Amino acid sequence: MNTEINPIDELIENTRSLLTRGKELLVQVAYNLKTLKDSEEWQKYGHETFPKFCQEELELSQSACSKYLAVAGYFAEKYQPEEIGPTDIEKLYLAAKLPGTPEENLSRAKTWSRDDFKVAKSEDEPHAFEKVCYCKVCGLSEERHP
């Protein structure tokens, strides 16, 4: 019987553990940002808006700040971060935008794929297909491209 531990298996397990911890930490970041914003103490740093504060003081993009605030704003009345557990912050954000209760949407965030969220959104919002073009180098839309 071979009891030697495979280094690749060890690396995989370590990576899984880090990813789980990272998900937990990002949920806590979302809640911390909500607490900071609600306290209004961030204004003492001289920034015009909370997203600017996040960008300049925390090196967090304004769009990420907005997503984290949406997650914490939606789930905070029902759950503490440790009750949410290791859940992808993007899925939590997508779930927070769906109709339903926080319980239903937390379950969706934990079990659905990103494609499941896209399908649900397409079913909830009647729309026609619209092709959009972005530059593969700079990411600007055709309308905004120099």
What does this 3D model show about the protein?
This protein is mainly alpha-helical and 146 residues long. Helix content is 61%, strand content 0%. The chain has one domain (7-124). It has 7 helices and no strands. The radius of gyration is 19 Å and the shape is globular.
- Spatial gap, N to C terminus: 65 Å
Strand content: under 5%
Overall geometric form = globular
Overall pLDDT score: 94
Using only C-alpha atoms, the radius of gyration works out to 19 Å
- Spans of at least 5 consecutive residues with low confidence: none
Helix/strand order, N-terminal first: HHHHHHH
Largest sheet geometry: none
Number of discrete domains:
1
> Helical region count?
7
User: Structural class of the secondary elements?
Assistant: mainly alpha
Which percent bin holds the helix content?
Answer: 55-70%
Q: Find the count of extended strands (DSSP E, 2+ residues).
A: 0
Give a brief description.
The protein has 146 residues and is mostly helical. It has seven helices and no strands. Helix 3 packs across helix 5 and helix 5 (89-96) packs antiparallel against helix 6 (102-111).
Which helices and strands occur, and which strands form pairs?
Blueprint: H1 7-39, H2 50-58, H3 62-75, H4 81-84, H5 89-96, H6 102-111, H7 114-124
Which short descriptors sum up this protein?
146 residues; mainly alpha; 61% helix; globular
